[in-house]
Write a structure and sequence with these properties.
With 332 residues, this protein is an alpha/beta fold. The chain is 23% helix and 26% strand. It folds into two domains: 8-143 and 280-321, 4-Layer Sandwich (Metallo-beta-lactamase, Chain A); 149-275, Rossmann fold.
Length: 332
């Protein structure tokens, strides 16, 4: 009898689906690639042909130019070789998907990155029962328990109002996190213009073209310092402490990331206001998801594999580490 999932082969550079002759999220260009979402550690340029959600293809085109892509909407099923392939919402960023692979009666779900929290910029994660669940483990340690997102946004707004004459400069990754922070602010009835670094403009505009209304956004570059007092400004994490930020009116430096749970990371970046807002599942959400999916095996990748492996073993769930290369936290 063949081993469960013998038709799925993990390599350091990605997951090879043999009966489809295709790769999932390969770190090098391949002839046939299935892509879970648009972050650069999962979506690379140069593939021969790409299957992804239409939103992910649009993001890849914005980043890498024209793609030989096949857009697969949520709930659709396509046949690639001898494998039925479906894309299921992952709740990570706009267009993000779990990839369901069905072959000879076996179901394999490649989660990509995912989260279980509500996010106004993308559809929520859908639990998909399967035989093998290939799960990320970015925050796969019990120390990572993310607080309520609304309470973190309230902290940001309280700080803005408590120190008039200053601004709050929030470091947020350009794809997903920046747009989510903007929409969470809008959820809290913050309708003032939000200022952004030029590096965020292209993807913010793309989100709006894809149906995510972000409200009034203005470029911060070239704006008189007085106009930026008492304002919220978003920038890539790398711009928090560079020359660009020094022209702002006494900024309160903030960063939106699950890694802000670790105080040393906040100190290393000179972050005055750490905001624990993550686009990945925390420890409780990872373990809850495995329970709900109820797979026969869990394969764990890019993250804290050891702790989640141990948890699976304690709960009599067969598990293995994949140790894929090329995955980064992208400032979560």
């Amino acid at each position: 009898m063949a081993r469960l999932g013998s038709w799925i082969e993990p390599f350091p550079e990605g997951i090879y689906v043999k009966p489809a002759d295709a790769w999932v999220d390969p770190s090098r260009p391949r002839d046939r690639s299935l892509v879970t979402h648009g972050h650069a550690d999962h979506a690379r340029g140069g593939h021969g042909k790409v299957w992804a959600t239409p939103e992910t293809l649009a993001i890849m085109e914005a980043r890498y130019g024209d793609q030989r892509g096949v857009g697969v909407g949520y709930g659709e099923k396509v046949r690639i070789g001898d494998v039925d392939v479906s894309f299921v919402p992952a709740g990570h960023v706009l267009g993000s998907a779990q990839i369901l692979l069905e072959h000879r009666g076996e179901r394999v779900v490649v989660s990509g990155d995912y989260k279980r929290r509500s996010d106004p910029t993308c559809p929520p994660f859908e639990v998909t029962p399967c035989d093998i669940f290939i799960s990320e483990a970015t925050f796969g340690l019990p120390v990572f328990r993310h607080p309520d997102t609304g309470s973190e946004i309230d902290r940001l707004l309280h700080r803005l109002r408590a120190e008039p004459g200053r601004c709050v400069l929030v470091g947020a990754y350009a794809l997903g996190k920046a747009q989510r922070v903007i929409m969470e602010l809008r959820r809290r009835a913050f309708h003032d213009p939000i200022y952004i670094h030029g590096a965020l403009e292209r993807l913010c505009r793309l989100y709006e073209e894809l149906g995510v209304p972000l409200g009034e956004l203005r470029l911060a570059t070239g704006v008189p310092k007085a106009e930026l007092q008492d304002k919220i400004i978003l920038c890539p994490p790398g711009a928090l402490n560079d020359r660009w930020s020094r022209r702002l009116p006494d900024p309160i430096t903030a960063m939106a990331s699950g890694w802000m749970r670790i105080r040393q990371r906040a100190r290393q970046r000179n972050v005055e206001l750490p905001l624990i807002i993550s686009d990945h599942a925390d420890w409780d959400e990872l373990t809850r998801t495995i329970r709900e999916v109820a797979p026969r095996e869990v394969w764990i990748t890019h993250g804290r594999e050891d702790a989640l492996m141990h948890w699976c073993q304690l709960h009599q769930i067969k598990a293995r580490e994949l140790n894929l290369v090329g995955y980064e936290d992208e400032d979560d």
